[in-house]
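Field: COMPLEX_INPUT
Field: COMPONENT_COUNT = two
Field: RESIDUE_TOTAL = 861
Field: MODE = joint
Values follow.
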Amino acid sequence: MSPQADGRSDAPPASEGAVDVARLMEAIKERVRERRASGFYSEDEVRRIVQMELELTQSAPNFSEEIEQHLVRLNDGWDTAADPVITSHRAGVGRLIVGAKTLLRKVTRPYITMILARQVEFNGTLLQLLNAFVLPMRDQVRGGLNALSQRLDDLLLSFHERLAVEHGERQRGQRDILERLGALAARVDTVHAEVERLRAPVGAAALPPPPSVPPGLGVLPAAAYVRFEDRHRGAREDIMQRQRGYLDLFAGAAPVLDVGCGRGEFLELCREAGIEARGVDLDAGMVAHCRAAGLSAQQADALTTLDALPDGTLGGIFCAQVIEHLTPEAFIALVRLAHRKLRAGGVLLCETPNPACLTVFSGAFYVDLTHVKPIHPEAARFVLEAAGFRGVEVRYVNPVPPEGKLQPIEPFWYMRRYEEAFLTQVNDNLERLNQLLWGAQDYAAIGRRP
Amino acid sequence: MRRLLRRSRLESVERPAVGRGPRLGFVVPRYGDDIVGGAETLVRGLAQHLAADGHAVEVLTTCAKDHLSWKNVLPAGARREAGVVVRRFPVQPRDTRRHAWLQSRILRGSPLGPKEETRWMQESVGSRELFAHLAERQGDYDLVCFAPYLFGTTLRGVPLVPGRAVLIPCLHDEPFAHLGVVREAFQACRGFIFNAPPEAALAEKLYGIGDRPSGVVGLGFDPPPRTDPAAFRRHHGLEGPLLFYLGRKETGKNVPLLIEYALRYRDVRRSELTLVLAGDGPVTAPPGTAGVRDLGYLDAGAKAAAYAAATVVCQPSVNESFSIVLMEAWLAGTPVLVHARSAVTTHHIFQAGGGLAFEDFYEFAEALDLLLEDAARRRQLGAQGRAYVEAVYSWPAVTERLRATLERLVA
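Field: COMPLEX_OUTPUT
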């Protein structure tokens, strides 16, 4: 063999930053090993790949083609009496030989034909029969096989789909049952804790009294809280926009009492909707603000005011951003009084910061010095139900806008499956964090007196 | 050399035009500027460049243009085409049905008896007049180069010019390569011109070349024309990563495998990859198959733009003795993906550092991942490929190797 054929002489010199193909090929083999070991290709996938390779390597002509070839040969040679082509490969004498052979053929033809005629007829008939049967039969078999294979594919596909749907349903059902059990267990725990608390001897665990404050010193000037609300609660228009969603609950619920009416946003919404409403607020500045806007409001303690009203006379009690200013006892008293003062079908709405949204504690809740205690939505529901309200609903409002949350990461088109699975997990985690940190900032517990 | 000079002097009466080096005849079943085919392109390129280099070159071929019908469409007789004397002879009548029948049996691997093999060879494309010319005028040529090995023109022509026959086999491992008549032809040759080292190794393994003279030459390439790949993509509405196949769309070229692999890749990797097929041939995906586009036949200009527009070019064929596609892709700076079971394309890949090879679907997918995810890596692989073609397969380099090989062959 020549020196050029040794296979190593024609490589160009390696340049700077060159990509080493041999190393890349090793990396490919390693990645295939890893991916197959990690189960990236499911059993089904592996089966399909093997099947694909098998189909592709079996490209030789099949049995039916062989039958066709035989048929072609029979059609070619059935007429055994046909004249053969007489040739000779010898130059010169060849022509003479051909002439002699042709003459001999002419002389013997009648006798040969006589003998072969019946054979030719037999051959022809047999071949006609074969032609009539073999090709249509082959097509029929091929068609039948194709139809069968199609049907099998369809069946497999629908079977797979049905399995997937049923599996999904079963999983959802299980999750639902687990959630309900969890909720039930939580309720049992709450009740159990409450029972334990009630059983405990009064005063056994009394805390030391808070330090005494000189009279007058712990109170801010009247106008200060209005200014504070302006700065931290939000613009009046925004609040009205948020509270507009509650109006439907109070349609036909006149007279409405707005407990802690503040700057009177809800009173104004009621006025616009033609619902008779008045407000009470402890803060003189707020009340003055309402009155200046032509709204009915009085400076008074909510509990005292409610207590003084005749029973079953109110259609609705609206109580936004108030209960977090109360001690638990005062909150329970407010709800029980509300139940007593509402007529049948009357509605109580208590809106308050949502402690299930953790960023509420880094902002809204502790910004206000007068907030006493966050109230968990389930605690509010429990208090309303315990006071006799029915159909108690917790409505989550004032969600953090999406741009204020952690942003999910978009998958890239060239990602591999395990990278996508990883990304999905990260995004699920982000979503859970979003729920916990930046969910609804407020909620409203709504109940009706039966 | 002295013998050569003496012969030249003696025969110069019969041949007025004597060039430098040995007097050469190329025997090829088809010849012409518009004839597509690996061996045909190779012989045309070698003959024209030798003629331009001052060699006396003649091409002996048939009047046929189409490799399926072998109809005599070009006029018989001698004429000069691009500096090369081309003698065309009519194709002799053949029993095509018998030939096809024997051919299908060979492909299926059913063994043929010696008589059947001879019959197959005689029914393969040949020309009585061409054979007569070879027998009678062999003294006009110092060397007669036959290409490729598979046709009647070669198998029946080689024994007619004993001592002068050189084979440019364009050989790859296929059922035909194992026939007795093919072995006889190889054994009757004075020497060989191979396209790539693995081809030479295969010939050694199958037939035993021994110490007969041979050389690895291959085909030469001119720098590619300037193209506008973006305009090509726009014109055909192609977007995103494009995996190109350029060539005849045949089962023998492994095109069905490529279609399957590309569709599976899209499915498993959820990729936006588009497989673009360009060329003639019966194999394609069902129309409207998402992820496959068939552009049909492309002319030379469009093909050059296609190579540049491709993200990766794939050559899945394992029946290659050289693979022009690889060189053309590399000249456009595009990396290639080849089937690892082809010794020749894999050889080029490793020598050039111009792409990757796959053995099965798993490797195909990983290799595509590596190529698609890193544009800088693709550019570098393409550049390495281009440097390889320019160094090893530029026309000056090829002509130099050919001249050296011919010198060894006449020595």
